[in-house]
Write a structure and sequence with these properties.
mainly alpha; disordered N terminus; 294 residues; elongated; 55% helix; 11 helices
């Protein structure tokens, strides 16, 4: 962090989306740490951590606080996004790190508040005495009031762009960039090529199933080989029933479709079933009547 070296520099405000992203990264890290920690006890007796789960979580969050807020003035999510906390109670515009009192109160408001909420819920959920019920209603009222204050603070944050959480507003700590954000020169030539290629590929994926590739191939082959050049040889082969016009092999169960060419029964039948507009690949005659060659 540039908390000590950049004290002479003016702070740079942080975008709202960057502050919200930092909060989401912090939540994801806490879930990851807890899942990794709880997975270490899968081989033990079920429910081993159920009675002390709030205390274990508080210890883990205390460990994270010690190596993030206390030592670096920033959470893990803020560190990833080049953000840190600034003491906004100071009158100077230069960067001022958090005081020890602000760090301790941050610990109490975040870690201690969540521990108290979870422990009170476990404590009063199984008690039905009247005194416990009154205390439970009072705690629920306080929790609802804090939720309402958090909502109002979030609306103000959307307008002003400062203090994303209620804890930050109460303690007077604000998110600023660690280093000035430089304007980046980004070339979009590679992205344009990728977008153009993906668009062309999607167009082909949509178009190719609509094209009868076999018929197109046969049509192109009939154009590329002039009919007049070897019409006499083909008629001779067809007359002697030596070649199927589709597979080019000796015709099995030879059939005709009304032209002078001969086909295997399976070749012409499968092509007719596949394409109702099938034509002879040699002369282009449409299939009018399939008859065995006599």
């Amino acid at each position: 962090m540039a908390s000590n070296g950049n004290n002479a520099e003016r702070v740079n405000p942080v975008l709202r989306i960057s502050q919200l992203d930092a909060l989401e990264l912090n939540k994801a890290l806490e879930q990851l740490v807890w899942s990794q920690f709880s997975s270490c006890f899968h081989g033990f007796k079920p429910g081993l951590l159920a009675h002390i789960e709030p205390e274990v979580k508080a210890f883990l969050w205390l460990f994270l606080w010690r190596f993030t807020i206390y030592s670096k003035n920033a959470t893990v999510g803020q560190t990833i996004l080049n953000i840190q906390y600034k003491n906004d109670l100071s009158q100077t515009q230069k960067y001022q790190p958090l005081s020890k009192h602000q760090k301790l109160w941050y610990l109490i408001c975040t870690v201690g508040g969540r521990w108290l909420e979870e422990r009170c819920y476990d404590l009063f959920s199984s008690r039905q005495l009247e005194s416990f019920c009154r205390t439970k209603h009072f705690i629920n009222f306080v929790a609802g009031l804090l939720q309402l204050c958090g909502l109002l603070n979030f609306l103000i944050f959307l307008q002003k762009g400062k203090f994303a959480t209620l804890t930050e507003r109460i303690l007077g700590i604000r998110s600023v960039f660690c280093r000035p954000q430089n304007v980046r020169q980004i070339g979009f030539e590679y992205m344009n090529r990728e977008l153009l290629w993906h668009g062309f590929a999607e167009f082909l994926i949509y178009l190719l199933p609509l094209i009868n590739m076999q018929k197109l191939k046969l049509k192109i082959s009939s154009w590329s080989l002039p009919i007049a050049v070897f019409s006499s040889s083909e008629n001779t082969l067809a007359a002697h029933c030596k070649e199927c016009s589709v597979c080019g092999e000796w015709p099995t169960m030879p059939h005709t479709i009304g032209c002078s060419h001969v086909f295997c029964y399976y070749c012409i039948k499968s092509n007719c079933l596949f394409d109702m507009y099938f034509t002879c690949p040699k002369c282009g005659t449409e299939v009018h009547n399939l008859q065995p060659l006599k």
